[in-house]
Write a structure and sequence with these properties.
This is Carbohydrate ABC transporter permease. The chain is an all-alpha fold. The protein has 16 helices and no strands. The protein has two domains: about 45 residues, no CATH class; about 210 residues, MetI-like (MetI-like fold, Orthogonal Bundle).
Length: about 300
Amino acid sequence: MAPPSTSAERAAAPAPAPGPVSQHPAATARPPRRAVARLGLPVLLALVAVVTVTPFAVMVLVAFAPAGGQTLPGAFDVGRATLDNFADVLAGADITRWAVNSLVYSLVSVLLILLFSSMAGYAFAKKRFPGREILFWSFLATLMVPFQATLIPYYILVSELGGVDTYWGLIVPTLANSQAVFLMRQFIVQLPDELFEAAKIDGASEWRIYTAVVLPLIRPVLATLGVFVFLWHWNDFLWPLVIGQSAEMRTLTVGLATLEGENVAINQVMAGATITVIPCLLVFGLLQRYLTDSIATSGLKS
């Protein structure tokens, strides 16, 4: 009969080797499911990107296709690509004049809307005056009114003031942008109040506070809003069509629409449309960094 082992001997004895652990079938099935779930969102985003880019790709293919390659099978033959469509549309239509009108309409509107909306946003966010909330929400309620409902009153007012076929008649009615004011106000309200109090203690005027404190801090949202406003005005069609009644005051969107009515070849129309996309891509590419900065600084708190 073996003597009983002591506690020290039991502690020094090697532990038994672990046997094989049986895995539940559900445990082995979880990693593949997680992998599929992780791949699901990228695949979905890729499909959405393909659906979004396809019309633009077809537009470019048709723009570079020769006169006989109007349909997609012919446009897919990239070996026959040509620049004749661009040369024909630039020579046959007043694309340069339309582009200048679109640039003036877009750039001037961007500068003025950013100026007015930042001022209004600063006032609604940091100033205290009677009726501030009522005025802000009343101004914001105009978002629920479609532009088509105010088109005729706008036109009557501008025409009575002599603004038909003028740049100011094209630009001024679009400056009261409630969306821009709302975005500015929501961003400025997050800025620390201590900055404005310190500026007032130092004797800074309201204009000094606006130019030296507010504007430097809201540069990301200014760039972001500037991109959106530029795209809105560059692609605007209805108001330029109504107010610019002469051929000299047409914008690119209106001018390209008139080309379709003049039985111009579809290849030339797509070439003109390709030209109109280039400024949008340049603006977005130059200001893309500020878009990410705006998202990163949107949670600024004191």
